[in-house]
Fold this sequence. Notes:
Number of helices: 2
Distance between the termini: 45 Å
Number of domains: 1
Largest sheet: 6 strands, antiparallel
Radius of gyration: 18 Å
Helix content: 25-40%
Number of strands: 6
Shape: globular
Strand order of the largest sheet: 1-6-5-4-3-2
Strand content: 25-35%
Amino acid sequence: MKVRESFYRPDAVLGREPWALAAAIYNRAYLLLRRSGEDCLFVPIRSMQYLAVVDAEEVIFVDGNRRPYIELAWQGFRPQARQGLDQPVPFEVVYYDAKGPQTMQRLVGEFARSVQQLAERTRSEHEAADPIELPRPAR
């Protein structure tokens, strides 16, 4: 069953600033997105009552108390700008709400924890699957 949600971007951008996301966080989030087979990945950030939505272009963040309005977005990821897969990925934070910069200070760490939890849950679901026996080649 597919879940469909709509989010709204305010007309005015209140600010932009460059950031870099640790490679492990970026790599894990986008690997989960690819493995999901969906156009987007919902990452609940329970400790903050936020929802992150990861898609091919950006990551948006919505305050659970102010849904469906986007508070901030991470856009313009440039993984090709790094020299190795273990280096941070540059991107731009776009603020749509005055409390966005304050939220951002805590968001990176909480997003990382939430993505890790989602990865562990996904991994355990795959590990719980029944193994299939492959036919052995005739000798």
